[in-house]
Amino acid sequence: MIEKRATPQSTGTLSHSRKWWPSLAGAVLAAAVVAALIKNTSLIDAGVWSALARYSFTIGAIGVAAAGVQSLISTFKWRMLLMRALPDAALHAGFDRLFAYTAVSNLLAQFLPAYIAAPLVRGAAMRSQHEAGFAQNAMISAYEQVFDVAMVAIGGGLALVLLAAGFGMQTSGIILIAIALLLAPLILAAMPEALRPGRLARILPRRWRFTARLRDGFEGGSDVGFDAPRFMGALGALSALRYAAIGVRTVLLGILLLPDVAYQTLGLAFAAVQISAVAVITPGNLGVTELGWGAMASFSTEATVGEFVAFALALRLISLLSSACVAVCSLLAFRDR
């Protein structure tokens, strides 16, 4: 038997398929988890769905307002960075277009982590619409996302510690998280030079392309003032405000959809579960987030596993539709300009 050698075409096809199999595996895992939750919990019969229909207008208004605020704050941060690194591109695009690109990236973030979706969308939009480099704009956008991830890690990490320590769902837990989020921008503003991103990036090796680009990006950002103390403090404050806006939205929706659950429970559960957004396990972390909310039934008797899971799925639907509404409206707003 003669062994068939792989042709360049078949090798390329194999390489392409290898790039897609993690995404396919994640989608299969998400479907399996959701199917298991439907089978083993009472989420189908949860009162969340009737409440969703009953308060649809109010819920829609809260969702769209929250999505708009998130996009607005993210646009402010992105524009602050662009005005330091690429002022001509920022002025050429205008705030309305930057807002639209951010809104579209927030829509894509329903399926991908925000720190991946934002650089992809913004980099592609700035290259195609304003003849600016994709890599540089993607790096700037990724830098902006670092502060959002930091706030998620602070809030989520503290919430998990409180729950693990048996602290329970108490008002004092919400206060502690709020204090931590308020202190974070102040710490950034007082950060010594040795701990700033541009200086820390020097430990990254240059022998790998990814780490070399990352190091160059942080060092280049330092050259234009990205890691100036007050500037980092301002970015951190805006990220903390964005994180708080998402938390308030979750609590308000929870009051409508899970009326028997206290706002303290909703707030701490949001912080604990939100940290899963950093992971890249399934598309949009479908199934992972729902498992996290379901686990909250172990710390609270105010709702069943099925009700918490149903609430998580309702939040996902509301976020998707609200983000789509803001994205479409913002794109249409300057379509004919």
Describe what this molecule looks like in 3D.
This protein is mostly helical and 337 residues long. Helix content is 76%, strand content 0%. The chain has helices at residues 8-40, 48-54, 56-85, 87-108, 114-130, 134-164, 171-189, 197-200, 209-223, 229-257, 263-274, 288-295, 305-333. α6 (134-164) crosses α10 and α10 crosses α11 (263-274). The radius of gyration is 22 Å and the shape is globular. The model is unreliable at 1-17 (pLDDT under 50).
User: Count of DSSP E strands?
Assistant: 0
Q: Major sheet: size, sense and barrel closure?
A: none
SS class:
mainly alpha
What does the average pLDDT come to?
A: 85
Question: What is the share of helical residues?
Answer: over 70%
**What is the string of helix and strand elements?**
HHHHHHHHHHHHH
Query: So what's the overall shape?
Result: globular
Computed Rg: 22 Å
Tally of individual helices: 13
Distance between the termini: 67 Å
Which regions have little confidence, pLDDT < 50, spanning 5+ residues? 1-17
Percent of residues in β-strands:
under 5%
